[in-house]
Amino acid sequence: MIANLLRSVGIGLVTALIVIVSVPSLRSHIFPPAKNPQPTNINSLQITFNQAVRRAAPAVVNIYSRKYAANDRSKLSTQGLGSGVIVSEKGYIITNYHVIAQADQVIVALQDGRVAAAQLVGKDRRSDIAVLRIEDSNLPVIPQNQNYSPQVGDVVLAIGNPYNLGQTTTFGIISATGRSSISIDGRQAFIQTDAAINEGNSGGALVNTQGELVGINTASFQQATDLETYGISFAIPYQLANKIMEKIIADGRVIRGYIGIDGQDISSVASRLLGNEHIGGIIVLGVDPNGPAASAGFKPQDIIIKIDGKKINGRQSVMDLVTDLRPGTTIHVDVIRKGKEITIPVTVAEDTRD
């Protein structure tokens, strides 16, 4: 009897299984589908950089360049517009040189409605940086992070006043760093971004997703070259802009060191021949006959490997180091000449090139 009962149960189970497999619509009643958890707050699905903009935008100002009429010194008219960034509670503003280069008067408009005439502290054509100052209290200051290092792929926001439409924020990523081909002397490294930078954005802020200053917007590739391009814009790195500002505040202008050497990074093959300890060295291509390097005895084909006992890391690092030195400073440069390592002392002069 028990055997018959078990056989009947078994037959019933097999029959039920066959029916479930044959009729898919029955499965949902027997095996209910797993429920995907739904977010309790639909806003959590939205990606927003609102907090970054709220932190940075109040410190980005509109700048109006005014110039006297040629035939009437009593009349001022607005000749140009741009943007600037308040970087200090003392009222210092960083903008672009080309924004205020021809101005007889500079007017600054804050986002809270305040308007003030700005004092020109100093300007530097080579870096395209100018420093202004306004006198007021409770000024908004843009967040700054000296430890932030821009990386390709970082999300950035460009804030400025394009075409005098009012403050506008555009979005993109860092496309490249160290772009020097559009600079006046081919030496200054820019940040490249696909965030839109149009006329009037110049001097505005490029910020990261924390609202921290990444760079000073300077131009689109189209503005710099007159080629019709989109998605290629440039900004001056914050660290460089800040360094230039400090020099202008200290001296009223930028004093750069100069030794009169033109060089290029040595190839990887040459590095291996010289030994791995010389990776990062540069080969001297030319020496200014009237410069300090010529007086010190530098020659073309010398390979620079150290300055004051510290290894160098390519051409850009040497330019940055020498530029930051005060004229009159003596440095000791280790070079390889015809296979032998020698040390040459050289006294830094002031770079008077515009």
Explain how this protein is built:
With 354 residues, the protein is an alpha+beta fold. It has 3 domains: 53-133, Thrombin, subunit H (Beta Barrel); 155-251, Thrombin, subunit H; 257-350, PDZ domain (Pdz3 Domain, Roll), CATH 2.30.42. Helix content is 22%, strand content 35%. It has 9 helices and 20 strands. The chain has helices spanning 2-22, 27-30, 50-56, 97-100, 221-225, 238-251, 268-274, 292-296, 315-324; strands at 60-69, 72-86, 92-95, 105-109, 115-124, 129-133, 155-160, 168-179, 190-193, 205-207, 213-220, 233-237, 257-258, 261-265, 282-287, 303-307, 310-311, 330-337, 340-347, 349-350. The strands form 4 sheets. The protein has a 6-stranded antiparallel barrel. The longest helix is centred in the first third of the chain and has 21 residues, at 2-22. The model has no long low-confidence stretch (mean pLDDT 83).
Number of structural units classed as domains: 3
Roughly what percent helix?
10-25%
Mean pLDDT score, rounded?
83
Query: Rg from C-alpha positions?
Result: 31 Å
Largest sheet: 6 strands, antiparallel, barrel
The H-and-E topology, N to C, reads as HHHEEEHEEEEEEEEHEHEEHEHEEHEEE
